Amino acid sequence: MDTVARRAPAPAQQTAPSILAPRPGTIAETGLSQTFLDDLLVKHLYTCGALSLRQLTERLALSGSIIEALLGFLRRDGRVEVLPARGTETAIVYGLTEKGRTIALEGLTRSGYVGPAPVPLEHYAAVVRAHTVHGLVTTRTAMQAAFADTILRESLLDQLGAALNSGRAIFIYGPAGAGKSYVARRLTRLLGSTTLIPHAVSVNENVMQVYDPSLHRRVEGSREAAASANASTVLMEFGHDPRFVPCSRPFAMAGGELTLDRLEVRYDRAARTYEAPLQLKANNGLLLIDDLGRQRIQPVDLLNRWIVPMEERLDYLSIGSGVHFSAPFDVVLAFSTNMDPRSLADDAFLRRIGYKIAFDTLRAEEYAAIWNQACSSLGIECDPQTLEYTIAWLHAPAGIPLLACHPRDLLCIARDQMAYLGESGPIAPATLRRAWQSYFVNLTSPADTSAAAERRSST
Questions:
Q1: Nearest Cα to Cα of residue 215 among 124, 276, 147, 160
Q2: Contact 335, 170 (CB under 8 A)
Q3: What is the pLDDT of residues 245-275, one digit of tens each?
Q4: How would you classify residue 101: left for phi > 0, otherwise alpha for psi between -120 and 50, otherwise beta?
Q5: Torsion angles phi and psi, residue 212, rounded to 5
Q6: Which domains does the chain have, with CATH numbers?
Q7: Residue 369 to residues 185, 398, 409: CA-CA distances in angstroms?
Q8: How far apart, in whole angstroms, are the C-alpha atoms of residue 234 and residue 230?
Q9: How far apart are alpha carbons 315 and 195 in whole angstroms?
Q10: Cys-Cys crosslink for 146: which of 29, 189, 308, 444, Cβ 3.0 to 4.6 Å?
Q11: Is 228 helix (H, G, I), strand (E, B) or coil?
């Protein structure tokens, strides 16, 4: 089994990227064998037809000196040849010989990966440890600044801040619409600035893709992002190993669609490629399992999957034909549910989760603050009596609790209806009542409900 030794976490962002992940200048410094890199280069040429040195450095994310060394060997071996210049181009281009095409096709049958050179597992693990999310310290001042634009009770804010410092999993529960997912997503504001995400990781030269554009966000304004269209700038001048992408700390969320296979290395038989599991993609960031209990798998099976990683901060995975390995499990793991936690997990598991944080319904003044904030952000003019009417004559008689999701949802529906009817001016109680009837499931006659509301408003 390939394993990554567990070490005590270092303070996050302590080491500069150029020192932590220096750009390799030789084949040996890549941590990969020449045979592996030879195969990867010829696969690039097979899929593209012909490429210049600059294009190869860009596609493999390796320096020009390494690419030149590989091309020199491949030319002597009869797999690569220099092709005539195309059109007005003056750069030398390289293509495959018949022998090279045969060998490239054989390589593609073994592995369909054609992308930047991967990072060895041990190199990746060292970067994750250096940027550990558990090396951060959150203060009350930082929490208040991060949630300055959010209506949240101070006691709840303090619980969340302490939970982040604990390094343990967080269990958030409360009614649907109480703002659990919204607040959990904003916790990433407390996780620091950036981390390094590899395009791919090599495990015994089995390539596992890690960088996911749908999840990882490149840091805007970084030298790599600014020069992404200029390979020579990126690869010849950029300070750190370009096999890593500077990204904001990841936020990954999985809800009812989550299945256990997404937590294991996935193999695409058609493409013959491996993809990293969700929790590995989320390393150095936050992983939220939302709507726990709504998945197509039993909650106990999902929770049991996390017992060892939560304890050891290591995840045990497999790739290829029985190749087992351990990888860092460096995430703030949060569970969110609107179900009773005791119905989802036994006491033994709940004890392993450091913080169980309850989100409650709102007080009237909190609801009013969110209402006014939503009116401001949506550019809606609202009659002050409409808010009072909504709480006293819609929520209260119907027995519907005040939740954080209601103000914006109701106001948006009311705005849509006013646009449809060609109405202008502030949102009146009658307009809000129509929005209410469209928003909530009502099993009584709309005429009866409207008449009852009119009677109440006239008393």
A1: 276
A2: yes
A3: 999 999 999 988 888 999 999 999 999 999 9
A4: alpha
A5: -130, 110
A6: 33-115 (1.10.10.10), 124-358 (3.40.50.300), 364-458 (1.10.8)
A7: 21, 22, 15
A8: 6
A9: 20
A10: 189
A11: coil
